[in-house]
Design a protein that fits this description.
Layout (H helix, E strand, L loop, with lengths): L1 E2 L4 E2 L1 H8 L5 H14 L8 H17 L7 E4 L8 H18 L8 E6 L2 H12 L3 E7 L2 H9 L4 E4 L5 H4 L10 H13 L5 E2 L7 H6 L5 E2 L3 H9 L34 H10 L4 H26 L4
Parallel strand pairs: 1-8, 2-3, 3-4, 4-5, 5-6, 6-7
Length: 305
C-alpha cells in the first residue's frame, strides 16, 4: 500500500482552506491574475477563473514537499458535460503555466467525477497526454469504464460524501468490497489503472484496506494512525481485506465493457444496489456544486465580478 502523498485540491477543500485569514493575499492575487487573463479565457466567468487559479495556487504551495502528482478537480457543475469538462481540464493545465511557468505539467492530475460524460472526457484527455483520476466512484461499472478509458487512478468513496460534510451522519455500510474487487479486476484483466480509496473515517478502515494500491488519509487520521499502538508481530492486530486468498474465476469480476455502450453503463449504475450507489454519486455532485456556489460568492465578495 502506498501512502497518498499527492496533494488533492477540489472545491470543498479549497473553500474550507481559503476561508482562513492567512490566504487573503492568495485570494486577491488570484482575482488580479484572473482579470489579467480574462481576455485569453473569455469562455469562462471571471469568478470561475479566479477559483481555478486559487486552487492551483494552493496546490503549488505543496509541490516542493512531494514528488508525485498535484490533483485538481474540475468544476462539478460540468459533471454532465463532456465538452465542458475537457475544456475545463485543459484550462486548468494552461493556468498552471500562468501561475508558475517553471512547474512540470506532467505532474498535473485532473480529478473528474465518474459520470458517463466525465469518463468520456477522461478518454479524450488521456489520449492527449493528460493524466486523470475518476472520482466520486461508487460502482464496479464506473471502475470498469474508468479503466477502459485509461484513467491513471480511480477514487472509490468508501463512505458517501455526506458522511464527511454532515456531522453525525453515518450513511450506509462502507464499500470495502468495491475497493478490493476493483483492484483484483484490474490486475486480472491487465489494466494499469490504480485504486486510491477516499472518504475514510477511521484508522480501522485504513488498516482493513492495507494492500490497496494507494490510499487517501486525512491529516487527522494520519496523526491517529501514527500514535496507534499495535504489535507488528501479531498479524491479527493488523487485519486487511487484501489478506484473504481468492481462488477461482468466480472470485474475479468478468471483463466488462461500457466504452461504446452508454445505455448499458447507465443501466448498470441504476441497477447497482437498487440504485443506492447511483444515489451516492448524485449526492456527491450536489454537495460539490453547493460548495462551488459558496466559492463563487466568496470570490464575488472580493470583487471578482
Amino acid at each position: 500500500m502506498g501512502l497518498y502523498l499527492e496533494p488533492s485540491v477540489f472545491t470543498a477543500i479549497a473553500f474550507n482552506e481559503l476561508q482562513e485569514s492567512q490566504h487573503e493575499a492568495l485570494l486577491q492575487k488570484s482575482i488580479d491574475l484572473a482579470r489579467q487573463l480574462a481576455e485569453d479565457f473569455d469562455r469562462v466567468s471571471l469568478t470561475e477563473l479566479a477559483i481555478e487559479i486559487s486552487m492551483i495556487s494552493l496546490s503549488l504551495r505543496m509541490a516542493p514537499h512531494i514528488k508525485g502528482f498535484l490533483h485538481v478537480q474540475t468544476n462539478p457543475s460540468y459533471s454532465y458535460s463532456t465538452a465542458k469538462t475537457i475544456e475545463n481540464a485543459r484550462r486548468i493545465i494552461e493556468l498552471f503555466r500562468h501561475v508558475d511557468s517553471d512547474f512540470d505539467a506532467s505532474r498535473i492530475c485532473i480529478k473528474i467525477p465518474s459520470t458517463w460524460e466525465g469518463l468520456q472526457a477522461c478518454h479524450t484527455l488521456q489520449a492527449t497526454g493528460v493524466t486523470t483520476l475518476a472520482t466520486t466512484l461508487f460502482t464496479l461499472a464506473q471502475a470498469a469504464l474508468a479503466a477502459e478509458v485509461g484513467c491513471h487512478y480511480i477514487a472509490p468513496y468508501l463512505n458517501e460524501l455526506r458522511v464527511q460534510t454532515e456531522k453525525g451522519y453515518k450513511g450506509g455500510p462502507p464499500l470495502f468490497e468495491l475497493c478490493v474487487s476493483a483492484q483484483r479486476y484490474y490486475k486480472q484483466h491487465s489494466f494499469p489503472t490504480q485504486v486510491l480509496p477516499a472518504s475514510l473515517t477511521s484508522i480501522n478502515e485504513i488498516m482493513l484496506l492495507a494492500g490497496v494500491d494507494h490510499i487517501t488519509i486525512a491529516p487527522k487520521l494520519l496523526r491517529e494512525l501514527a500514535s496507534a499502538e499495535v504489535d507488528p508481530s501479531n498479524a491479527s492486530n493488523l487485519p486487511s481485506l487484501f489478506d484473504e486468498v481468492k481462488t477461482g474465476a468466480d472470485q474475479i469480476p468478468p471483463r466488462l465493457s461500457y466504452a461504446n455502450d452508454e445505455k448499458a453503463f447507465r443501466m448498470a449504475m441504476t441497477r447497482d444496489a437498487n440504485g443506492a450507489n447511483e444515489g451516492k454519486l448524485i449526492q456527491a455532485i450536489n454537495i460539490f456544486c453547493d460548495v462551488q456556489l459558496k466559492m463563487e460568492a466568496m470570490m464575488r465578495d472580493r470583487g471578482a465580478v
